[in-house]
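Memo subject: From amino acid sequence to discrete backbone structure tokens
Action wanted: Derive the backbone structure tokens from the amino acid sequence.
How to read it: Take the token row as a discrete description of the fold.
Attached in line: The record itself begins immediately under this heading.
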Amino acid sequence: MLQSFLLELLWRMQNRLLKKQNRYEELLPYCEQALSRYPYEEWQLVKLECLTAMKDYQTAVEYYEQIAVSYTHLRAHE
């Protein structure tokens, strides 16, 4: 539990630092790691922000559509 908390804290600190320095290509792998553990938290938005900042609009749109589908399925099972 403590290890997970510390890992997430590290990701958040790294997120702030890299975003402040506009180092989105370096941030994306950290984002992917966070998403593997916390798939439905704000890391989806961070990933979208990275993709759009990197001007990878096609991938950003595809990822957005993937998120929309997954949330639609989640809502259907509530």
